[in-house]
Amino acid sequence: MSWPSMLLAKQRLPLLGLVVLYLCAIALITLGASTITYAATETAGVAAEVTTESVETSAGFRDRLPFPAPKLQREDYPNIGFSSRSIVWVIAQMHLFFAAFVLAVPLFVLVIEWIGVKTGDERYDDMAHECMKISMTAYSITALFGGTLAFALFLLYPQFMAYMMNVFDSQVLVYAFLFFAESGFLYIYYYSWYRWRFGNSKWVHLTLGLMLNVVGTTLLLLANAWVTFMMAPSGVDDAGVVTGGIWEIMRGPLWNPINLHRFIANIAFGGAVIGAYAAYKFLSATDQRARAHYDWMGYTANFIAVLAFLPLPFAGYWLMAEIYAYSQQMGITAMGGILAWLFIVQAVLIGTILMASNYYLWSGMSRTAGSQRYTWLIKYIAAVLVVCFLIWVTPHTLILSAAEMKQLGGSNHYLLGPLGIMPAKNIAVNLMLIFTFLSFQLFRRADKEVTVAWAGFGNALMICIYIVAIINIIFAGIYYGYFTNTVYKVGSSVMQVVSTLIVIIAGVTIDTLMFKGANKLPSQWGKVSNRSQYALFALPVAFTWLMALMGYVRSSVRSHWHVYTVMKDNSPDNFIPAIGHAGNMMTIVTVLFLLFVLFIFWIASLSDRKQARPAYLSSDNT
Amino acid sequence: MASPDIEVNLNNRVYTWLLATILVVCLFYGMNHVIMSMQGLPLNFDLTPVQ
Question: What count of other Cβ atoms lies within 10 Å of the Cβ of residue A227?
Answer without folding.
Answer: 18
